[in-house]
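Morning. Coffee machine broken again, so started the prediction first thing and wrote up yesterday's gels while waiting. Chain of 308 residues, entered below exactly as on the submission form.
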Amino acid sequence: MLNTEVPTVNRNLNSAPRIVGKLSEIVYACAEEKHQTIVLSNLPDDGNQLVAEAIHDLSSWADKPFFILTCQGQAGRNTRINLTHPVHCELPELFTNNLLLEPLHGGTVLLTDPYHLPIHQQQALLNLLADQLSLKLIINIKSFHRDLPQHLSFPLMKDARTVKVPSLRNHASDIRFAANYFLSKTNLEWNKNIPGITEDCLQQMLLYPWPGQLPQLKEAIRRAAFLAPTNGMLELSSLPSQIRNFKATDRDFLKEAVKQAEYEMIYKTLRETNNNKRKTAEILKISRKTLYSKINMYKMNSYAQVLS
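Came back before lunch.
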């Protein structure tokens, strides 16, 4: 199990002290009720995946599998459902082979873009995932947020609870919770025993604006943990230089704030246009060359590949 508090290492997750904040409240609340479908919104897809994983890891069924199904198609035509995490494969026999996903029984599934499916297929998928396989169903919608009311009328989302995941910036408790969750998970993954994060390291993380949100925080923790001694605290010196040297009084503060706003605007516009680069560039009033440059700079390529 995972630890969610500093500095105690506790592999029994349910007995670990809780850090109270918006993000932790969402995660714990969603992890308490297995049969409540959750719709995640307001974060880039990688961030929503991390939230979904945290819900699973902090649940009573964390010993069961976590996986992602991605639905693709156009207005109900040429639709397909692929397994995209932890491995990639097509599932052409999903509805004809009742035993195909049986080994995943009782776990958690993150379902991406189910609105691509025709209504009858959505209902069949709901019956399979929720009823037959008894899975916790978490839905990730990549379309623009204003389309959510329409999507929520679909069978898979009819009785779902929509959760707006908060931004990390100016949410100290959320940064504490996420940092220690990622550290605990890294300890398990790499068989380390890092007991916690030093206070000066934590304070620097609270100062940093995190334009890349949860994915950036996760990578920073993983990098720091990789370089840290196996049984030593996670120290400030282990953080990436751009985070370690960041000062709110520097001009860099404004640059980071602008980067965060720019990242969010590009991401939301790509969602609104269904990854149409030409339309996105027109809306943002920039050239396509500049748009591609920004996509590469913010490492948004993985998002673009999922939509394509």
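The CA atoms of residues 186 and 222 lie 6 Å apart. Going to sketch it on the whiteboard this afternoon.
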